[in-house]
Amino acid sequence: MSSEGLHELRETLPAKLLEMHRAIASLIEELEAVDWYAQRVAASGDEALREVLSHNRDEEKEHACMTLEWIRRNDPQFDALLRRILFQDGPIVAGEHSTPDGETPTLEIGSLRPRGSV
How many CB atoms lie within 10 A of CB 30? Predict the structure, then answer.
């Protein structure tokens, strides 16, 4: 699995990057656990076991959220993107090309025309 190892020599990587790698690997693992538990809940025929597995799945969601918050606090670009994209109404990709203040950049066609043309 790609999240288990580094792609570069550990000795060449700064400590901050290694901490981020740990967080990203942990986030991947938490999300995988959410998926595994969800599958087990769906497949189980025992109501009591489904309750236990559902509880475990939801704990993994909480862990994933806490790890994502650590990543947000430690990576300014993740912070800016999460603030712009999360908890918004409407289409998810609608603001993909918007500016940090939420405005969509506009292109004035007239500025592309040669001077003197209509």
Answer: 20
Q: How far apart are CA 74 and CA 57, in angstroms?
A: 26
Task: DSSP for 87-115, please give it.
Answer: T--S-TTTTTT--TTSPPP---GGGGSPT
Per-residue pLDDT tens over the stretch 22-47: 999 999 999 999 999 999 999 999 99
The H-or-E segment that residue 71 falls in is helix 47-74
Max Cα separation, the chain?
Answer: 77
Burial class from Cβ neighbours inside 10 Å (0-12, 13-18, 19+) for residue 53 reads: buried
Domain chopping of the chain, boundaries: 10-92
Instruction: Report the distance separating Cα 48 and Cα 54, nearest Å.
Output: 10
